Amino acid sequence: xxxxxxxxxxxxxxxxxxxxxxxxxxxxxxxxxxxxxxxxxxxxxxxxxxxxxxxxxxxxxxxxxxxxxxxxxxxxxxxxxxxxxxxxxxxxxxxxxxxxxxxxxxxxxxxxxxxxxxxxxxxxxxxxxxxxxxxxxxxxxxxxxxxxxxxxxxxxxxxxxxxxxxxxxxxxxxxxxxxxxxxxxxxxxxxxxxxxxxxxxxxxxxxxxxxxxxxxxxxxxxxxxxxxxxxxxxxxxxxxxxxxxxxxxxxxxxxxxxxxxxxxxxxxxxxxxxxxxxxxxxxxxxxxxxxxxxxxxxxxxxxxxxxxxxxxxxxxxxxxxxxxxxxxxxxxxxxxxxxxxxxxxxxxxxxxxxxxxxxxxxxxxxxxxxxxxxxxxxxxxxxxxxxxxxxxxxxxxxxxxxxxxxxxxxxxxxxxxxxxxxxxxxxxxxxxxxxxxxxxxxxxxxxxxxxxxxxxxxxxxxxxxxxxxxxxxxxxxxxxxxxxxxxxxxxxxxxxxxxxxxxxxxxxxxxxxxxxxxxxxxxxxxxxxxxxxxxxxxxxxxxxxxxxxxxxxxxxxxxxxxxxxxxxxxxxxxxxxxxxxxxxxxxxxxxxxxxxxxxxxxxxxxxxxxxxxxxxxxxxxxxxxxxxxxxxxxxxxxxxxxxxxxxxxxxxxxxx
Length: 656
Fold this sequence. Notes:
Helix content is 27%, strand content 27%. It is of the alpha+beta class. Among the domains are: 90-237, no CATH class; 400-611, Beta-galactosidase, Chain A, domain 5 (Distorted Sandwich), CATH 2.70.98.70. Strands 12, 13, 14, 15, 16, 17, 18, 19, 20 and 25 form a 10-stranded antiparallel sheet that branches. The longest helix has 20 residues, at 291-310.
């Protein structure tokens, strides 16, 4: 593979989602992995791939794979304490996360990762073949070099099991001998550096505790030398102000604290101080364009704060301020179902609460913590989060929640999801994001990041690209919100979307308008949750319902300026060529899920949609009328009524 693909694999190795029981936790990442799938489904660079690190030289490739990676966990189960911790002058072993192996496997030099069979990588004496790559999976190779799989052996050694401690140290020493500084020529060893640094620190602590000594015995001097080498590697190859760079800075601080090297501590603190203002903006938005990575950022910076305080360095006020803002951001980004919005690279997960915060409020479904001060918020970074309430007049889970994306073009862990809407109501997901297909550069990732995987108007006949989307106006009232957005996704093509979100009855109205200099295919897509069965009743109406459920969803294409054609509504599900109609609850599982398309062909299109969740016993009807150039829709949902006004410029509002 060429240098570009090799550099892309650098991120494939470290940006992941871990599976530990039923908990999914995001790993840090620092670079974009945009791809375009070839006809055969194999990955090719699309020109928006990873940016080289400062002074980065070409790195050799690691064999690619069509399998989805399964990296290890790198976040604590609960957030670090919000109150200052005692200064003990030490760096605490951060643990080994979700890829620990039984001690018996460690003693047998056998490594296992993901769902692949265990593989004997050594002789049984700690002599490891560090070039082992039996399954040709970049992440398998990187986690082998991380040494995190030695965690249970290190714990055993710390408890006094000298046989196991000796074997673990033999494996670590073998890595040090077989991978001399600088190991930058090996992508897997390179990208595992920050993880391996922490393992070395944990092993050093296990030696002191297991042998009941206060200073490192001379026979293990190589361990401290290797820690210095790892620190030097991270100094020279810092990833910058990103999640990955922040993790490196914490590990660098750990070396400085452990070896009493104040210059390393200072450099780490300086880098953290620089990174925090990029990682989290003053409004609480992260630079990763992902709600899931927002949760990771919250935990990561809590870990940084604790590490600094425990070893006598002040984290300063900015980290606490930005984390507090991010806590509010994440609370607003939590659906009424109690899960985070799956926006950007994000798996299905619940937020992790911190005592007394707004995040704790949503994590407990309103039972504790502090209720967020806002019901709806518009963030400059390109996020709109809204809800009908916080459970004041109806159960928390029965509120309706939504998200809308706009802003800067896709980067890092973002998707081409501008103008997309997610929506939850009646205790369930109605409009979904595709989720996170993983880090393998294949047709599935290309689709999951594309506009076709989101609830937007797409122009599949045009050569579209990731572009900035402008929020032109926003109106927030007690019973409705409206937004106007615009962009130009392709040369000679403009796209506008007006959105109206109602409370009582809870529903979403959108007006999509596309205009081009030549005939185009326009499709407004509505991605529904898996197991929904869609019945197309006419070119203007479809109904979706999960068998046995107590609610259903009406999807209405209301005639406006144009009469929908005979094939005005089509449904796609579980399609592989081209990919369409799927959902990823996590990177390991893919489920078919229906996509309802509202279709047009021509130089322009005007598609007025209504997405109306109801009880199964309720009916939805509407009438339209035009008065003085204004278009009105009189909607009836069960016994509730609402009148929607469409102004000539497309603005939507509720007038009753």
